[in-house]
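Need residues for this backbone.
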């Protein structure tokens, strides 16, 4: 029974339960893609059906992670299969649990407002945005925003953070960013704005069917 209802894995060399950050990032990417597509469907089509399903799936997955065992969460199982050939990156389980409890609260609120009450408001929009930001930072950068609040609330220091960010250390040369690189980033942002300014009208024109496939289909 303890093997079923357990949070984190016991791995030799670690004095606390840990999780594999690589499969967590993969799971976050799966959830992000699902939520992102469903939110785009709401924005462009005004159809909330896909979002309602996504909320139920998101909440069910988080419930399994927090109250049963992360190893039985469907998205983490899929993530494990995807990254099975990669060397595990172990992270402390406790701060991940705290972060997922935050996700659980957000998902429960969305379920009540969006699914049960069948409503939408700036509140649901803000919660969706927060969820997307959390999932994106986890999947794209390996940064657990929820974990950041763990050390603020609990006095004990988080252990085994992704990328060893818990440990204070000097940056290696390959990690340092020069002022020239910063200028390049700002220059690239300026390039994007300039491109929009110069080509917005031409880019807004609908492309024509190069091979005439649409006309042939409609003529039948």
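Answer:
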């Amino acid at each position: 029974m303890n093997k079923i209802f357990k949070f984190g894995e016991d791995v030799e060399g670690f004095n606390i339960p840990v999780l594999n950050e690589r499969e967590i990032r993969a799971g976050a990417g799966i959830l992000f893609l699902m939520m992102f597509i469903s939110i785009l469907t709401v924005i462009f089509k005004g159809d909330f059906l896909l979002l309602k399903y996504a909320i139920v799936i998101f909440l069910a997955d988080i419930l399994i992670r927090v109250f049963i065992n992360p190893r039985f969460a469907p998205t983490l199982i899929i993530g494990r299969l995807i990254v099975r050939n990669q060397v595990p990156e172990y992270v402390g389980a406790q701060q991940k649990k705290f972060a997922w409890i935050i996700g659980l609260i957000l998902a429960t609120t969305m379920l009540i407002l969006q699914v049960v009450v069948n409503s939408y408001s700036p509140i649901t929009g803000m919660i969706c945005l927060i969820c997307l930001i959390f999932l994106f930072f986890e999947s794209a950068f390996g940064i657990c925003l929820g974990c950041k609040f763990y050390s603020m609330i609990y006095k004990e220091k988080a252990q085994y953070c992704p990328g060893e960010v818990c440990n204070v250390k000097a940056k290696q040369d390959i990690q340092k960013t020069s002022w020239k690189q910063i200028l390049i980033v700002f220059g690239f942002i300026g390039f994007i704005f300039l491109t929009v300014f110069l080509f917005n009208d031409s880019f807004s024109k609908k492309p024509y069917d190069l091979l005439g496939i649409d006309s042939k289909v409609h003529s039948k």
